[in-house]
Amino acid sequence: MPDQREILVFGSHVYGSYIHCERIPRPGETVAGTGYHPMVLDDGGKGSNQAMCAARLTGRTSLVSAIGTDRGGEEGLALLSAEGCDVSRVLRSPDLPTGVSLAAIDRTGMSIIITDPGANLMLTADAAKSNEAAFGRHMFCLLQFEGPKDGALEAARLARKHGARSMLTPGPMVALNKDELEGLDIIIPNETEAAELLGVEEISDYRAAAREICARWDVTNTIITCGSRGAVAWWENALIEVSAFKVNAKNTIGAGDAFAASCALALCRGLDISQALRFAAAVAAISVSAAGAPWASYPSLNNVHDFLAHVGETIRLPPISDL
């Protein structure tokens, strides 16, 4: 099919407001902050972060999202389009504003984030169905829960129907019935989300947790991202582990989105899962090493290849094949 593309992202777009602080406040506590930025347009929601990362890595990427009729939304789409992402399917709400995230970042680069979805509430099951033709033209569909749950789950169903693989980042976590994730190709939670999926306060054994998530939720494959400790996957009934690259983290916002998008793109290009996870770890490491907002921190493919060569690794993302 001549117009087939690689990554379809069905998910949120927001822009961020940032403030830096020495440490994250405890409940009920006020701390002093610096460097407040009220509208950071090189920032996105989980969906548009994933779309930006994949597009910059030369992926043939499309985004189905929603914005308001405001400057923040339109300028964000312009930045995505400039990187080669197809934004022609993005909805516009006459009533709801573009979504926004409020983020506090401490001196170690860790953050807390509160998100108002705004126009992303339009990303319902009907919105997925109205874009059904697009699912058959992409190899991978990336999903998140920053919009309505029914929209993400319907998008996963349509991906399966049309032969595309689906990857769900289950954040922010929502209440799920036991059978709602059945048949999902890949779920990629972080440590907190993995604990919530298993109904525990904290996970002590990530190897066992990855396997248990697959069994409990009837998901084919699970990848748990563990920050500076790397990632653990239960993949096609085998355990896969990759370590993280040692870098000086300055801002971790959007790193999980970069990991998910780059892993999916690597799988599209034919890398095996171990190579795909290692490639994704490199992309995430570069991302957290920059102090700026996610889109400013996401690397080009040449940046990633140079990084891997510098640390003595030979993994390369193959060129786009004739699909």
UniProtKB/TrEMBL annotation:
Summarize where substrate binds, as residue positions. Answer: 45-49, 146, 257
Specify whether Cytoplasm is a keyword of the entry: yes
Catalyzed reactions per annotation: D-ribose + ATP = D-ribose 5-phosphate + ADP + H(+)
**How is the protein's activity regulated, according to its record?**
Activated by a monovalent cation that binds near, but not in, the active site. The most likely occupant of the site in vivo is potassium. Ion binding induces a conformational change that may alter substrate affinity.
Identify the residues that bind ATP.
190, 225-230, 256-257
Q: Which residues bind K(+)?
A: 251, 253, 287, 290, 292, 297
User: Entry's CDD domains?
Assistant: ribokinase
What InterPro entries does its record include? PfkB_dom, Ribo/fructo_kinase, Ribokinase, Ribokinase-like
Q: What top-level class of enzyme does the UniProt entry assign?
A: transferase
Report the cofactors: Mg(2+)
Name of protein: Ribokinase
User: Which species?
Assistant: Mycoplana azooxidifex
The beginning of the lineage is: Bacteria, Pseudomonadati, Pseudomonadota, Alphaproteobacteria, Hyphomicrobiales
